[in-house]
Structure formats: C-alpha cells, structure tokens
Amino acid sequence: MALVSIVTATYAGDDPQFLAQAIDSVIDQTHRPLQYLIAGDGPLPDVTRALIDARVSDHDWIELCPLPGPRGPAATRNEVLARCRGDYVAILDADDAMVPTRVSEQVRYLTEHGLDVVASWLEVMDPTGTEVGIRKFPETAAEVTAKAPFFCPTANTAVLFRRAVLPDFRYPKLAVGEDYRLWVDLLRRGRRIGNVPRPLTRYRTGS
User: Fold this and answer.
1) CA dist 118 to 43, 92, 102, 108, 190, Å?
2) If you ran DSSP here, which 8-state letter would residue 114 be given?
3) How far is CA 87 from CA 2, 90, 165, 177, 203, in A?
C-alpha cells in the first residue's frame, strides 16, 4: 500500500489531552504504512513533550519535529511539509481526531474520482468530546469549485492530497483564513478538490 504522511502542528497552548487523542487516532488508522510528523511550534510543556516522546518510542514511524516559534500553525505546517515522504499527505489539527478508516477511505475516494485534494464532512464535538452535529461540505470537484466564491468549501483538518500537489500546497501568511485562501489558490491552478460525503474527522469546537 502507498505510504501516507500525516502532519499535525502543535504549540504550548494546546491541551495535552486533546493532542493525545489526535495522535492516538492516527495510531489507530487501518491504513499502513504511515509517516507521522508532529511539528512543535516553539517550546512545548514537559507534559506535552512526555506524551509525544512516549508515542515516538513505541512507533518508529512517528517523529517530533521541534521548530523555533511560536510562528503559528500555518507557517509550522509549511516548514515540515518538505519532510513528507508519502505518496499522499494528510493534515490533522492538534485538538481533533481521525476515525480509524479516514486515510484508507480518502485515498480510495481520491483515486476513484481523479482528485488532487480530498477532505470530508466533519463530526462536530464539544470540548468534552460529545457529538453535537455533522458539518457537511460540497462533494464533487465541480460543486467545490462552484461554492468556493461563497464559503470555505472544505476543512483543513480533514484534508488529504497527492504528493504531486506539494509544490503548490503552501499556506499563505494571513491573520485569518489561510486555509480558505489556499483552497482558492489551488483551484485557480486547476487542482481538483472534493469531499467524501460522510464524517471522517472529529472536529472539536470551543465552549
């Protein structure tokens, strides 16, 4: 099976418990092989470093990438994307989680539909992890392109893309909306973006 690289950016302000759930959801993926890069945006608290080190020790395909910072999640992701070796690259935010079949389903869906980038619907959960709803996105590449001028047509934390997209996949330096701008930039370059029409990522909202 194809190697898939997964990137998570984290910093000192992230909840260690939420980060642990994110990492463990990657460990529980049914797809293998994986490369998991956890990008540390500046110094991390001892408790965070300890939980990451424990998982790195148990899984040789997980790597902590300490970076000077904090510089923000967009710049941090950009920095480690160059280290991705996979045929595909996936993004997961530090307070969210993948369902176990996310990677395998997205690789299959992307391939079957001739996409460059694929995400999915989101299972929205509150800070306690309780599901509070489903957030849907347009499915096909044509629908994503048509809706992009009006709202963000996919979710950053749910994205998986082909390695060939890496030269174009760079988050712009913006105060807000860097992911939305990235999707627009990719669409303008002719990249095809779609969404699996079911929730494959658990997205945590604030209180």
Assistant:
1) 32, 13, 11, 10, 14
2) T
3) 6, 10, 10, 27, 25
pTM (2 decimals)? Answer: 0.96
The alpha-helical segments, DSSP class H, found in 28-131 are: 46-58, 73-81, 102-112
Closest CA to 37 of 16, 65, 57: 65
Provide φ and ψ at 88, rounded to 5°: -130, 155
C-alpha closest to that of 17 among 122, 98, 95: 95
The answer, yes or no, to whether residue 33 has pLDDT greater than 90, is yes
Residue 165 near residue 117, CB atoms below 8 Å: yes
Which tokens in the block code for residue 163? Answer: 């390695």
Percent of the chain having pLDDT more than 90? Answer: 93
| 115 contacts: CB under 8 Å, gap ≥ 6 | 109, 141, 192, 193, 194
Instruction: Produce one character per residue of 79-99: b if its CB has 16 or more CB atoms within 10 Å, e if not.
Output: bbbeebebebbbbbbbbbbbb
